[in-house]
Write a structure and sequence with these properties.
The protein is mainly beta. The chain has two domains: 11-69 and 85-219, Jelly Rolls (Sandwich); 242-321, Sandwich (Jelly Rolls). It has helices at 21-24, 61-68, 70-73, 75-81, 106-110, 142-150, 215-219, and strands at 11-19, 35-41, 43-44, 47-48, 87-94, 100-102, 119-126, 131-136, 158-162, 168-171, 177-179, 183-190, 196-199, 242-246, 251-264, 272-278, 280-285, 288-293, 297-300, 306-321.
């Protein structure tokens, strides 16, 4: 049995479009000026998260999964995904707009020996007039898309939403998208680092080179159908886990909390991840106490059946597991 709540050292990623919010607003330990991502929990090859607390400090997430198996992730998760942790948990700071891109599903990604990339975004903070590019305005054809790609006029056919704090977007494989400038995002996704870059605004990297585009790979996965709305609606009742997104790869709820709440996991055959997106909470388990502040993340192993969560003021947690 793995008998402790798990914290991990964030893995910070420099990006051409990154900024300073991860340090300034979420207090990540970096003085870099273009930190775009904080990988909170990762089992991506070469970027395995390392435990930062308790008796297991210094252990990698991958080594814990190999040793504790279903006790860490749950019977269903272990049978389904084996000894690779199935989710990658991030905070993203987009000082500049990201590339227009798309992600493959499991079948296409499997050619590259990877999971596909289904993801969701929760807007932690948004500058005035910040927006997200997501999906098409109207159903499009491959020929129409290629015409606008060649003429650098994709925004004529892509949908653009103005966004604000608390907005949620679900991004399945095949949905064209780009996080806009001025956004701080919590991202929950499958364990995959595969992105097919469609258009990168003709910008160059620090060495003066254009970043690689993946036109042919993107064509194989793009869903050209439009939706009436791309934003995910949800309720937000206090001290209740309000379901926001559910799919085969993860379920995410939002838990607004004030006061004291005992949370029981006995009916869940899964690990539980909490990302604090507002305020500060205390997790109590046996003799362990963990203070989790805005921008921090904690993992509850599947074999732990309940914890107490306390917040003196109003706080908000994203709660993620696999059903």
């Amino acid at each position: 049995m793995i008998d402790q709540l798990l914290r991990f050292t964030p893995i910070l990623k420099q990006k051409i479009w990154g900024g300073k919010k991860l340090n300034q607003l979420l207090h990540k330990n970096s003085d870099g000026s273009n930190i775009g991502e904080s990988w909170e929990i990762s089992d991506v090859d070469g970027d395995e998260s390392i435990v930062s607390n308790g008796n297991l400090k210094g252990r990698t997430l991958r080594s814990l999964l190999k040793e504790y198996k279903h006790n860490l992730v749950g019977n269903y998760v272990y049978k389904t995904f084996g000894e690779q942790f199935p989710l990658l948990i991030k905070f993203i700071d987009a000082k500049e707009v990201l590339s227009i891109q798309v992600h493959p599903d499991d079948d296409l990604a499997g050619i590259q020996d990877s999971f596909g990339k289904t993801e969701m975004w929760y807007v932690v903070q948004a500058d005035e007039d910040a927006n997200i590019i997501i999906g098409f305005k109207n159903d499009a054809t491959k020929q129409e898309y290629l015409h606008h790609l060649e003429n650098k006029s994709l925004l004529d056919i892509l949908n653009v939403d103005e966004v604000s704090k608390g907005d949620v977007y679900f991004v399945p494989p095949g949905r064209v998208h780009a996080i806009g400038a001025g956004l701080l995002i919590a991202e929950i996704q499958q364990t995959s680092d595969i992105t097919y870059r469609i258009y990168d605004w003709d910008r160059k990297d620090i060495d003066g080179n254009y970043r690689e585009l993946h036109t042919e790979k993107a064509l194989k996965t793009i869903d050209f159908t439009a939706k009436d709305s791309y934003k995910t609606p949800y309720l937000k009742e206090s001290n209740i886990s309000n379901q926001v997104v559910t799919c085969p790869y993860f379920t995410t709820n939002i838990l607004p909390i004030k006061g004291k709440k005992e949370v029981c996991f006995s009916e869940k055959d899964s690990f539980i991840i909490y990302m604090c997106v507002e305020g500060e909470v205390v997790f109590n388990y046996k003799n362990q106490q963990e203070i989790v502040r805005k921008g921090e993340t904690i993992l509850i192993p599947a074999c732990i059946d309940k914890v107490e969560i306390v917040s003196e003021n109003s706080s908000e947690l994203l709660e993620t597991y696999i059903q």
